[in-house]
């Protein structure tokens, strides 16, 4: 009679042992899950920390690059002004004894490459003295349709005159007031090249170029000084032909000041014959200059230049418009940006 009782106790003991073992396994599984969750959380926090550190390092690097590029570009502006004032710094070894406008000079400093070019405003198209034929040649270069050319030419003149009388294809106050975002035209002499994009009909050109690259309000002559062309004005006269533009740069390097015979050889007979009525080759007494300076951080030796250009390192460009009277320099505008 005792054996069955013994068996029952043994079975009860086995059941209890099994439940304890199951509970222990369950506790171990829960602990593993907690460890996994904690590891995932730690990994996420570590990844966020690494990302934040990388972001901060990148921000700091970009700030340093910008500061260095701006310092180099500022150096280029000052070098250009010193050269145009005929006051070169003694420690800069220039390749040319005579300083030439529209030629890009380069200097290598410990922190990077400085390049600068000085052009007189006589090498641009004056919006207040623009010739209709020259204006149409320019608009044709910008691929503006003939009917739109007439609108822009007349609207620019209506913008600059003092009356409210419409030219045949022009625009006066009433048209500007009917625009979705109405405004009032100047009805007076254009004060800044950027006004060009406020003129009726020029909206299609707004994203194609910067007004200051082609236009000025400081060219007292109705013609363009071929010896002082901005890169954009050179592209316009050369119709974007890279071979012609390189020929101009090579001629500036070899001869310095160019005459109209050089212009014919560079532009070709057809283009020269069309543009020659609007070209001169002598610098007037124009006291307004544009200095285009570039700072390239990290480009410290000429032999590294081609390799660095392939890497497309950032370049900070400063464009400064100045008025030079005697030895005094007055800054009229300053633009800077990465390219």
Structural class: alpha/beta
- Biggest sheet strand order reads 1-2-7-8-9
> In what range is the share of β-strand residues?
15-25%
Helical content (DSSP H or I, runs of 4+): 40-55%
Note poorly predicted spans.
Answer: none
What is the terminal separation in angstroms? 102 Å
Counting structural domains, the number is: 1
Mean pLDDT: 86
Count of DSSP-assigned helices:
10
Quick overview of this protein structure:
The chain is 47% helix and 16% strand. It has 339 residues and is α/β, with parallel strands linked by helices. The mean pLDDT is 86.
What is the secondary structure topology, with strand pairs?
Elements: H1 2-84, E1 105-109, E2 112-120, E3 125-126, H2 132-141, H3 146-160, H4 173-177, H5 211-214, E4 215-216, E5 224-225, H6 231-237, H7 242-255, H8 260-267, H9 269-275, E6 279-280, E7 288-297, H10 305-310, E8 316-325, E9 328-338
Parallel strand pairs: 3-4, 5-6
Antiparallel strand pairs: 1-2, 2-7, 7-8, 8-9
Detailed description of the structure:
- With about 350 residues, the chain is an alpha/beta fold.
- The protein has one domain (about 1-140, about 210-339).
- It contains ten helices and nine strands.
- It has helices at about 1-85, 130-140, 145-160, 175, 210-215, 230-235, 240-255, 260-265, 270-275, 305-310, and strands at about 105-110, 110-120, 125, 215, 225, 280, 290-295, 315-325, 330-339.
- The strands form three sheets. A five-stranded antiparallel beta sheet has the order 1-2-7-8-9.
- The protein is extended and about 95 Å long.
- The model has no long low-confidence stretch (mean pLDDT about 85).
């Amino acid at each position: 009679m005792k054996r069955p009782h013994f068996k029952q106790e043994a079975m009860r003991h086995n059941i209890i042992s099994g439940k304890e073992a199951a509970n222990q396994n369950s506790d171990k599984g829960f602990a593993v899950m907690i460890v996994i969750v904690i590891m995932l959380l730690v990994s996420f926090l570590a990844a966020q920390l690494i990302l934040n550190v990388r972001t901060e390092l990148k921000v700091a690097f970009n700030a340093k690059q910008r500061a260095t590029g701006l310092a180099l570009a500022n150096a280029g502006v000052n070098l250009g002004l010193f050269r145009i004032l005929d006051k070169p710094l003694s420690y800069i070894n220039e390749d040319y004894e005579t300083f030439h406008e529209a030629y890009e000079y380069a200097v290598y400093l410990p922190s990077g490459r400085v390049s600068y070019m000085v052009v007189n405003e006589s090498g641009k198209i004056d919006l207040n003295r623009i010739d209709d034929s020259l204006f149409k040649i320019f608009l044709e270069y910008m691929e503006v349709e003939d009917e739109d050319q007439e609108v822009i030419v007349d609207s620019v003149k209506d913008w600059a005159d003092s009356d409210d009388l419409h030219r045949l294809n022009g625009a006066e106050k009433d048209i500007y007031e009917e625009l979705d975002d109405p405004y009032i035209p100047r009805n007076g002499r254009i004060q800044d090249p950027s006004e060009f994009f406020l003129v009726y009909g020029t909206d299609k050109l707004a994203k194609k170029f910067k007004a200051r690259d082609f236009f000025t309000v400081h060219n007292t002559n109705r013609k363009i000084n071929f010896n002082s062309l901005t890169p954009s004005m050179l592209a316009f006269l050369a119709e974007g032909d890279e071979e012609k533009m390189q020929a101009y740069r090579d001629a500036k390097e070899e001869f310095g000041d160019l005459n109209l015979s050089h212009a014919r050889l560079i532009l070709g007979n057809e283009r020269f014959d069309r543009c020659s009525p609007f070209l001169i080759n002598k610098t007037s007494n124009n006291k307004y200059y544009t200095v285009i300076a570039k700072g390239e951080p990290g480009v410290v030796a000429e032999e590294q230049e081609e390799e660095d250009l392939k890497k497309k390192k950032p370049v900070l460009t400063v464009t400064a418009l100045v008025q030079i009277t005697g030895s005094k320099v007055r800054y009229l505008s300053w633009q800077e940006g990465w390219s």
